Amino acid sequence: MKKLLASLAVVALSCSALVAEELKSGLAAGEGIGAFQVVKVAGAAGDGLAENGDQLCYRCKYGPRPQVMVFTRSTSGEVANLTKELNSAVAANEDKKLAAFVNVLNADKAAAEKAAKELAAHATTDKVPVVVPVESENGPANYGLNPDAEVTVIIANKSKVVASMGFAAGKLDSAAVLSAVKSAIQ
Hints:
Helices cover 35% and strands 20% of the residues. The chain contains five helices and seven strands. The protein has helices spanning 2-21, 58-62, 77-92, 109-122, 174-184, and strands spanning 38-42, 55-56, 67-72, 99-104, 130-133, 151-157, 160-167. A hairpin with a 2-residue loop joins strand 6 and strand 7. It is globular, with a radius of gyration of 18 Å.
């Protein structure tokens, strides 16, 4: 009996650890994606939508197209890797009109712009603009981004959320994001 109780305790602790790693952030599946203003800092030089320094709504410009919106407080290696992978996915899925943009968040707008420039310098961004939202500390208020999430990825198609993924510091799973993107454009 003691062994059974000890085993159940281990299973319960394991399950609670798994649940604790999940981080809810962003809009729920099926919700509409609202407009929000950003300042283009780098990337997507030939997109015809904006020049660096311009303020616009990329979400609006992309319309109902399938799109990936990354909101990040970090520009670490894994975020740069995800940006490169998204750049490749956009290039490979031009026929499906896939679009993506990376939003760098920080309470200090100048620090966010500097980090955005550094991210673009370390990642391939010829298809993916790197921007700073006007609401730069935690992104657009109507998007429900969790301040504890280092990275939030929202995937939308036909102006509705298909998937929303929140990641704590150091937990970004690029493979899971790319799998969700692939499912959204099928």
